[in-house]
Design goal:
alpha/beta; 351 residues; nine-stranded mixed beta sheet; FAD/NAD(P)-binding domain; six-stranded mixed beta sheet; D-Amino Acid Oxidase, Chain A, domain 2
Length: 351
């Protein structure tokens, strides 16, 4: 008889794990929201990192190079290769100076050319390079995931908040709930990890035509990034400082009541709480034309990272076997979902 597996969490990590397991097992994918891909899998910059963003973490670079190619093979229709990507080193307050960044690129054979996106105030930037780095179309990824889940006969249970009783209903449970990863481990307190939780806002904007098809990342410090939002006419903005509304280190995230209706609610127009103006004001130092942006709306989610990694900004995934029936997956970058799914499949196959 085939084993019954529960995968808890309908983000890209849970979905990919479910797809890999469904080749051999009966799989239920359990998601507390009313749809898949509603949380951190949707509220991010949608880049398939090759490592350019992590000059202080060689491990993340190596992992990114491998995982990006795997993601392209797994979800080819959701990959966008037409975006012009620019990485810029700020003249002041960058943790990685321009010359060191170039040495880093050469060390890892990361391709680049010297080019300016045409909207930067050159007085504020030491270096601009253009790179080849893919992005993700969130709408196509969503459709692809649903099609493949149905094709593999994965039963998707939405609006289901899993509790510890679920751990006894299946032959094996895979917990892929990211920021909620510790919620189901109350019986296994020694296995829980502390994380740094950040309640983050991403803003969606319309920009002048000069920004069309351009992605701009200002590094390496308290800066910002602009990325085309899939194949729409809008752009997604992130900010190292102003995106974070609330932060705590612990076993669980601390979420003030006023944010609870905003979290993972897709794009909210005219949000009651927003750092939009701070996003724009800080970006205008480097890109004056950003002041012409129009705020379409904001998205909010909880981001979780390992604490005390500020020196390297490391972003690696972790697969942990809690016992013979429970495995947890902590997400790194989005493209690492394939590698983690393979690790999970190997663990369960060995039982």
């Amino acid at each position: 008889m085939k084993k019954r597996i529960a995968v808890i969490g309908g983000g890209i990590y849970g979905i990919t794990a479910a797809l890999y397991l469904a080749d051999k097992y009966i799989v239920d994918l359990i998601e507390m929201q009313d749809d898949i891909l509603t949380s951190a899998s949707a509220v991010n910059q949608l880049r398939l990192h090759k490592g350019y963003h992590y000059p202080r973490s060689p491990e993340t670079v190596i992992s990114s190079l491998k995982s990006t190619e795997e993601f392209k093979k797994e979800y080819p229709d959701a990959v966008i290769d037409s975006i012009e990507r620019f990485y810029c080193i700020a003249k002041e307050n960058s943790l990685t100076p321009a010359d060191k960044f170039i040495r880093f690129l050469e060390q890892f054979s990361l391709e680049f050319s010297y080019k300016n996106p045409g909207v930067i105030d050159k007085k504020t930037i030491d270096l601009c390079i253009k790179v080849k780095e893919s992005s993700i179309d969130p709408e196509i990824l969503y459709r692809t995931c649903w099609e493949r889940l149905k094709g593999k006969n994965v039963r998707v249970l939405l609006n289901k908040k899993a509790n510890s009783s679920y751990l006894n209903l299946y032959d094996h449970t895979v917990i892929c709930t990211y920021a909620s990863i510790n919620n189901l481990l109350s019986r296994y307190k020694t296995k829980r990890r502390r994380y740094k939780y950040q309640l983050c806002e991403k803003i969606i904007v319309e920009l002048p035509n000069k920004f069309k098809n351009k992605s701009i990342i200002i590094m390496d410090g308290p800066f910002f990034c602009i990325d085309p939002y899939g194949k729409s006419s809008c752009f997604l903005m992130g900010n190292v400082v102003h995106a974070v509304h609330q932060m705590n280190v612990g076993i669980h995230p601390v979420i003030p009541n006023k944010y609870k209706t905003l979290l993972n609610a897709k794009i909210i127009k005219n949000p009651p709480i927003t750092n939009y103006q701070s996003f724009i004001d800080s970006a205008a130092i480097f890109i004056p034309m950003i002041k012409k942006a129009r705020h379409v709306g904001s998205m909010y989610t909880i981001r979780a990272v390992l604490p005390n990694k500020e020196a390297t900004d490391e972003r690696l995934h972790h697969v942990q076997q809690i016992n013979r029936k429970i495995t947890t997956v902590f997400a790194g970058k989005i493209a690492n979902c394939i590698e983690s799914a393979k690790e999970v499949r190997k663990i369960i196959d060995s039982k």
